[in-house]
Specification:
31% of the residues lie in helices and 32% in strands. The protein has 6 helices and 15 strands. Bound molecules: uracil.
Length: 211
């Protein structure tokens, strides 16, 4: 694969909120609010290609030729636990979306990704799916999550994260070339513990104050 495929959402509001999230002095309450707001703004961009159809709407003064989203249903699948923080923002935009949950962990012996929880909407095969996690580091959890939703029948899958690393992007690009990746930044390094550097630290701990 020569060049990596991903979209950086460089809207000033997203970038401003990302800077606040990165800041080590930002506490859990503010961090959670920022994750939620950023996810909503990113989702807005990631949905730019939703198909619309024209409808006639009766206004108080006449008939307007107007547009509505045409018949596509959505499922939103956060990867536990950090991805959970991204649900509220997206649900504000699309309240009719259904939500699935996927939990994975890295097996320290094999270094492979193991699923420990997967509950998806029954009709996920008929829905466009956005999988979300705050960080895309090695790509192990992201690829496993895409495997699971595809196995359940989903065909149109996107992956949304706030900070990505090239290793994770490459893995998703190679394993699932049909999956579009949206992020707010691509950071250069992974450290020995496989954290993204400079990144924002452990996203789950930052959100839930567990450290
Ligand atoms: N998960 C995190 O929470 N942070 C990282 O930097 C990488 C993975």
């Amino acid at each position: 694969m020569d060049s990596l495929k991903y979209t950086v959402i460089d809207h000033p509001l997203v970038q401003h909120k990302l800077s606040l999230m990165r800041d080590v002095t930002t506490g859990s309450k503010e961090f959670r609010e920022l994750v939620s707001e950023t996810s909503m703004l990113m989702c807005y961009e990631a949905m730019r290609d939703l198909p619309v159809k024209e409808v006639d709407v009766q206004t108080p003064l006449g008939i307007a030729k107007s547009k509505v989203i045409s018949g596509r249903k959505l499922a939103y699948v956060p990867i536990l636990r950090a991805g959970l923080g991204m649900v509220d923002g997206v649900m504000n935009l699309i309240p009719a979306a259904k939500v699935g949950h996927i939990g994975t962990f890295r097996d320290p012996e094999t270094t492979g990704t193991v699923e420990y929880y997967c509950k998806l909407p029954k009709d996920i095969a008929n829905r466009d799916v956005i999988i979300a996690d705050i960080m895309l580091a090695t790509g192990g959890a992201a690829c496993e999550a895409v495997n699971l939703v595809k196995k359940a029948g989903a065909k149109n899958v996107k992956f949304m994260c706030i900070i990505a690393n090239e290793r994770g992007i490459k893995k998703v690009n190679e394993t699932h070339p049909d999956v579009q990746i949206y992020c707010a930044a691509v950071d250069p390094e992974l450290n020995e513990q496989l954290y993204i550097v400079p990144g924002l630290g452990d996203a789950g701990d930052r959100m839930y104050g567990t450290k």
